[in-house]
Design a protein that fits this description.
- This protein is 55% helix and 4% strand.
- By secondary structure, it is mainly alpha-helical.
- The chain has a domain of 99 residues: Arc Repressor Mutant, subunit A, CATH 1.10.10.
- It has a two-stranded antiparallel sheet with strand order 1-2.
- A hairpin with a 5-residue loop joins β1 and β2.
- The chain is elongated and about 60 Å long.
Length: 144
Amino acid sequence: MQLTRAADYALRVMVHLAGLPEGSRASRADLAQAAECPEQFLSKVLQSLTRAGLVISHRGNTGGFELPRSHRDAPVLQVIEAIEGPIRLNVCLVSDQACSRGGWCPAHVVWAEAQKAMTDVLQSATISGLAALASSSRKVAAAM
C-alpha cells in the first residue's frame, strides 16, 4: 500500500498551517510553495480538507486557509482519511461479506493485525507534533 500524493500534500499543508501562529491564514499559492505541490492540484486537496472541516477557507482579499485550534492536534490518520477515505489493507477488512473466503482465510488475521498496527501509529501521530518536529529541524539546520 502506498499513500497518494494528495494525502502527502494534505499532510504537508496541515503541518505548515500548524507551524503558523494561531489564527493566521495562508494563501493557496503560499501553501503550494510550502507543500512543493502544483497549485491547481492543491486546490482539490484543500477542497477535501475544507469539506472534512480540517481547515477553514476564507474568501476575499484577506482570504486564505486557516487551521482551526480544534484541529491543531488532529491525528495524521484523520488527515489521510479525509483524502483517501477509510484505510483498508485488503478488501476482506471492509466487511465479512467482501471476501468469499470468509472466516477461514489464514491471511485474514495477518491483514487485520497489520492494519491495526498502521492505524495505531497514524492515530498517535498528530499535526502539532509533526509541526514541532519540523520547527526544531529547521532550527538545527539554520544553526549549521
